[in-house]
Amino acid sequence: ADAAVPVRNSLLNICMDAKHHKHEPGPEGKLHEQCSPWKDNACCTANTSLEAHKDQSKLYNFNWDHCGVMPAKCKRHFIQDTCLYECSPNLGPWIEQVDSSWRRERILHVPLCREDCEEWWEDCRDALTCKENWHKGWDWTTGTNRCPQGSRCRPFREVFPGPKELCEQIWSHSYRLSPARRGSGLCIHMWFDPARGNPNKVVAKYYA
């Protein structure tokens, strides 16, 4: 059993090997707005957290408004999703190796709390998009993502019939819809109140 301890611990409090992540987590006093819950222990820098809030972010040259202006209530979930991905040191149990030009590691099947997926879907159901997997298949000829030829803009509720499809398909199964609810210790919170501590520490430990 003792021999297994180092392996288990290596899944906790780590940053993935990806484009903007720090090598190891630590305090960041000036994290911007929605990324601020991670300021005590973050894998992102202040600059990354600032870029995460821009409509045309330099992080990946990704444009949220590819089918017209995304409503603010929807966009805030994508900002929060970016903050979780860039800043969280609690995703170790779901980090996988990947051979990609822009990152060596990714997350796969992170169990996102049911309410987080439901609220994301509810706030975005009337927003428009032309794709169900946003990781690939875009037209990048202009340097930013545009809808591929032959695709058309449709409401999220048509592209993603429910919260499960949105959470699981949009980023190539980075997330899965967990049946568990916030506070259960069994699912990752995309949203949390830092005044109450980071609930994802316990969740990562459980799965590690």
Automatic annotation (TrEMBL):
Domain Folate receptor-like residue range list: 14-188
Key words of the record: Disulfide bond, Signal
GO molecular-function term, one example from the UniProt record: signaling receptor activity
GO cellular component annotations of the record: external side of plasma membrane
Similarity section: Belongs to the folate receptor family.
Name used for this protein in its record: FOLR1 protein
Organism name: Erpornis zantholeuca
